[in-house]
Amino acid sequence: MTRFDRKAFFLAVLVASWSLAFPRSVAARDYQLTVNAGNEIGRISRFWQAAVGSDHMYMVIDSARTGVNLKSAYGLAARELGMRQVRGHGIFDDDVGIYHEVNGQPTYTWDKLDQIFDYITSIGMNPLVEVGFMPSDLASGTKTFGWYGGVPGNVTLPKDYTRWSDLLYNVAQHCIDRYGLERVRTWNWEIWNEPDLPRGDFFMGTIQDYFRLYDAAVAGLLRADPMLRVGGPSVAVSGNNWISDFIDHCMISHVKLDFITWHTYPAFKADATAIPAAHRNVQSLLDRKKVQYPQLSVENYLTEWNTTYLGGTSYHHEMAASFVAKTVHGLFASQNGVKPPDTAAFWVISELWEEWQTTADAFDVMGMVTRTHDVRKPSFLAYQMMASMRDIELDFRGGITDPRGLNGWATISDDKKQVEILIYDHNFVSGTTAAADSVSTVVDNVTLNVSGLPFAKPSVTVQRYGVDHDHNNAYTVAVQAGNPLLPSAATWTSMQEAGQLRTIQPDEVRPTTGAALTLTFQQNQPGVSLFLVTEEGAIVVPPGAAGDAGARDAARSVDASTATEGGVDPGASRDAGEGIADAPHPPPATEGSVATGGAPTSGHSASGERASGGSDACGCRLEGRAFRSMAGAAWVIVAGTAFGRRRRRFNLRARP
């Protein structure tokens, strides 16, 4: 450990010790909630399942940890969370190796790109293609971003815009040949990542340079097919002028634009009001632009968000779970006052991370599952519970919309045999330091009255799943064991068990009176609960099954519902060829043929300037070593509590 690391370590211990000496809690409250199953108020847009983020696309094949890759994490995202797209950095980087110049002539090599996209499509997802970074043979300079296993991404402009456009044409045409025109027409091609960061972490150019880069990329893509979906500008600071100026450019220059992409992270760790507030601003801007340009027809894609860009431990525990549920609910039109985003892609699915080197095995960076073993963290379980919610929203009352407190939403299955009720109870500290990484648990008392049940039988089965500090929480178990960053084999086993979504109280068969039911329970804050109220004896088609998914998936040639029900073994091996479909593809272009045609990142928020110190796409800061030391310090002093009784594993598949 360097002197810098030692200083950061002891500083983190002092800060965290101070924060524990003054518990960050609020007074317990009593809540009276009502759900009227006979009052359907609309249908839910499942924007949170449209896409999920992933750090480095090459890691679908392999990583610096030999034999460890992203395949099983992607599989969990598709099968258990119902994710439909995955977005990641560096598909044009030299480790994927698509573009080379031999004797001054462009050549293309497709084998690694094919391995990546073959796997993604084989599990029922599509790539949300982040177009970047610049192949070194095509680059105008040498500035790079990230570590990426020793092959960082080049972030300079192309030396030849004709060849840049040709690259996009050839990649798109290859994908059409391999996966079929109709499928590739459903893909989204997002041009670059965070070109607006003022220090040029991801892009060495001005806004005008970006416009030129975008125009040439779109021209190449549309040569392959004019109906391909294209968009940008993938800004880190959604409150600056880039989105407005970018729309102006595309409208005035008549350049195709199908969607706007942007990122945001809360200024205060786990402030669940921040993302909805940023979305209101972006959507309001888009609405004004649509008045200015009647021909403008764009979708709104939030392609990165999480609890913070500042590092620390808020990614790992129960506060992240309630943050996820409250943020997603806060993006509903009924809560936010504007239409929800068309996509809200959480950053990222896995801790398998190569924007800098790390020696930790778990709990040091963003991610819904751990770097190895794919242990499901509380944020994953929150997504898993949300995946079980259906499309028909019911009248839900009694919750509060304050930044801190309890609220939720309710749905009913299409066959009217089951009511699903998701309840979240959130708290956070208005801060940016290690003192804001966690809060103390408070126990709220809840009475839930469910009326208007459309069931023929006079009794129901009630199941309750959940995640909080004491239930289904792998991080609690890791902290109890004493070393979250480098768990022992025994701790990994305990974490895998804890990371399963199980019921947190025994199932009950309860009589109804006048088609109504009253439940009383205690809810830990922070935490999330899912109640399933099912007509006794009814067999409800699990979310994601073909009978309930309808025709929405007709455009998807491979459906996540074909995956085995019940999840995958979190400890299963991750072979390079694992899960790749055997279905034949048209033969790819000849390898090496001449083409035809013509350190980590920075923080960002909705309106603020980037944090001091460099930072990466997710906003994890340049001083990564210091943050890793801080994360290590936290477990030294955090006191664990007893882990709740093991309950039945949650076995519903995600609704896509």
Descriptive notes:
This protein is an alpha/beta fold. It folds into 2 domains: 26-41 and 391-539, Immunoglobulin-like (Sandwich); 44-387, Glycosidases (TIM Barrel). 27% of the residues lie in helices and 20% in strands. The chain has 15 helices and 21 strands. The strands form 4 sheets. It has a 9-stranded mixed β-sheet with strand order 19-18-21-16-15-14-1-17-20, with helices on one face. A hairpin with a 7-residue loop joins strand 14 and strand 15 (405-412). Helix 1 crosses helix 15 and helix 7 packs parallel to helix 8 (274-292). The longest helix has 19 residues, at 3-21. The protein starts with a helix and ends in a 19-residue tail after the last helix.
CATH level-two architecture of the largest domain: Alpha-Beta Barrel
CATH fold-level topology of the largest domain: TIM Barrel
The DSSP helix count reads 15
The total tally of domains equals 2
The stretches of 5 or more residues where confidence is low (pLDDT under 50) are 1-23, 544-656
Q: Give the full name of the CATH homologous superfamily of the largest domain.
A: Glycosidases
Distance between the termini: 46 Å
Alpha-beta content class: alpha/beta
The general outline is globular
Largest sheet: 9 strands, mixed
The tally of beta strands, per DSSP, is 21
Strand coverage percent: 15-25%
Helix content: 25-40%
